[in-house]
Amino acid sequence: MINWFPGHMKKAFDIIKQKESLFDMFLIVLDSRVPISSYNYEFDKIAPHKPRIFVFSKTDLTNLNRFNELKQHYNNENDILVSVNLKNVNKSYNVLIQAIKKVTNNISKQNLKKGYKTPPPKIGVLGIPNSGKSTLINILAQQKVAKVGNEAGITRREQWINCKDQFFVLDTPGLLWPKFDNQDTAIKLAIIGSIKKDSIDLKEFTYEAYKLVSKYKPQVFKDLNLEVAESEEKIYENIILLARNKKFINNDKTIQFHRVYVFLVNYFKNLDNVIYD
Fold first, then answer.
1. Is 199 marked as binding a ligand?
2. Which pLDDT value is given to residue 149?
3. Is 130 annotated as a binding residue?
4. CATH level 3 topology of 7-171
5. Which residues pair with 127 in a beta bridge?
6. Mean pLDDT for all residues in the chain
7. How many of the other CB atoms lie within 10 Å of CB of 206?
8. pLDDT digit string, tens, across residues 133-165
9. Annotation-wise, does 174 bind a ligand?
């Protein structure tokens, strides 16, 4: 059973909820490899009537054909959808700024009718851990102001960031559910690195991840000289085979299972052209 909802997430969610009236809009960052599963429906409780820009990150890692089908799930006339490969900094910046300006212009028109100018907007950035929020904020700020890493739990507290006096962004920790009702969702998020490794039973997760990749990206096993498998018995046979191929074996001929599990977890995490929804 996978669950990860540390205290800093609960605290951050409460703070954002308390400050929701300060925000003019929200950027909701989703991982394109799990465009449905990476949306935290707890976000619906935060200022539901404020403008939202859905930012699908890591488009360089997803299956674009399937992704373009699934993102229509969010096709709401009140929201803006943008897709970005955050490794392409200049293009991502232009796409994000264009979306933010569109919302800001609408807000300015409404304020003008009321007879006052619009100050630089305040933007909340929401997303699950390791979705690309901090990278996105660094792109918007045009400098490294948020700590970045390819793992969950890098951002632990909230911080306001001034983006060249054009707007202010609140960077928040990645937020998960208090409890996963669907363990398939938990496995998907764990595969992409949104759940901290030390909160997971590594053996159990490796087996479940093997099943999931067998379903959604079966061809990758050929590169490892392994076979698609969904039964635990068959997965075990493939783990033994991988250990022998990679020489993850002790002097007494016993298998270094932990090394095999770590290898597979990292291998699955870094797959591209894959989508798990």
1. no
2. 47
3. yes
4. Rossmann fold (3.40.50)
5. 29
6. 89
7. 22
8. 989 999 998 877 765 544 444 445 567 888 888
9. yes
132 annotated to a ligand binding site: yes
Using a 10 angstrom Cβ sphere, with 0-12 exposed, 13-18 middle and 19 or more buried, the burial of residue 271 is middle
Q: How many angstroms separate the first and last alpha carbons of the chain?
A: 20
Q: How far apart are CA 120 and CA 246, in angstroms?
A: 55
Average pLDDT of the residues in 110-134:
89
Distance, in Å, from the CA atom of 197 to the CA atom of 192, rounded to the nearest integer, reads 11
For the CA atoms of 184, 186, 190, 196, what is the dihedral angle to 10 degrees? Answer: -160
Q: Which residues contact 212 (CB under 8 A, 6 or more apart)?
A: 184, 187, 188, 191, 276
Q: Catalogue the E-assigned strands of the chain.
A: 25-31, 52-57, 79-83, 122-127, 159-163, 167-171
Six-digit token string for 114:
């009321």
In sequence order, the β-bridge partners of residue 25 are 123
**What's the confidence (pLDDT) of residue 13?**
83
pLDDT in the model for residue 153: 45
Please state the domain extents for the chain: 7-171, 201-269
Pair of tokens at residue 224: 């490892």
118 marked as part of a ligand binding site:
no
